[in-house]
Amino acid sequence: MFTKIKKFISLPKEEKTLFLEALFTSFLIRIYLLIVPANKVERFIQKKSNKIKPNNNFSTETIYLIRKSIKRIAKYSLWRNLCLEQSLTAMIMLKRKKIPYTIYIGAKKNNEQIIGHFWITAQSVEIVKKGSNDIIILKEYSNF
């Protein structure tokens, strides 16, 4: 426990800030998903994916740090934090920084069962990974 706290304290300021932002945002997303019916989630994504004037002053390093933060919170959060929560968290973080993104909704068939999956990319970097190649893209939303 103390080694993890020491590790967090030793992180650069930008990584600590992004980690805390991702943790807080992920928590709010999880509460939202518990309260709001599933059929309203797509409307939420559409609303958040309004066209933005991209910030051209960001670096791809920022995108990689956001991806790293998302992975960290998925590992350490006390609540469910799967592809949907991770993608929505990343979407909100990218939108705040005015970084263009594309969020995908997909599905695949697995033993007579259909499994849904969400993933998100920014500047061709997969923040939440697509996973297997047999996932079919059902919808995609971009904010650029």
The residue fraction in helices comes out at 40-55%
> Radius of gyration, rounded?
16 Å
Alpha-carbon distance between the two ends: 42 Å
Number of domains: 1
* Main sheet strand line-up: 3-2-1-4
Order of helices and strands: HHHHHEEEE
E-strand count: 4
Number of helices: 5
Q: Which runs of at least 5 residues are low in confidence (pLDDT < 50)?
A: none
Described by the principal axes of the CA atoms, the overall outline is globular
Strand proportion = 15-25%
Outline the biggest β-sheet: 4 strands, antiparallel
Overall pLDDT: 91
Structural class: alpha+beta
Index terms:
4-stranded antiparallel beta sheet, single chain, 4 strands, alpha+beta, 144 residues
Write the layout of secondary structure elements.
Blueprint (H helix, E strand, L loop, with lengths): L1 H8 L3 H23 L5 H8 L11 H17 L6 H14 L5 E9 L2 E10 L2 E4 L7 E7 L2
Antiparallel strand pairs: 1-2, 1-4, 2-3
In short:
The protein is α+β, with helices and mostly antiparallel strands. Helix content is 49%, strand content 21%.
Structure, described:
The chain is α+β, with helices and mostly antiparallel strands and 144 residues long. It has five helices and four strands. Strands 3-2-1-4 form a four-stranded antiparallel sheet. A hairpin with a 2-residue loop joins strand 2 (113-122) and strand 3. Helix 2 packs across helix 5 (83-96) and helix 4 (60-76) packs antiparallel against helix 5. The radius of gyration is 16 Å and the shape is globular. The mean pLDDT is 91.
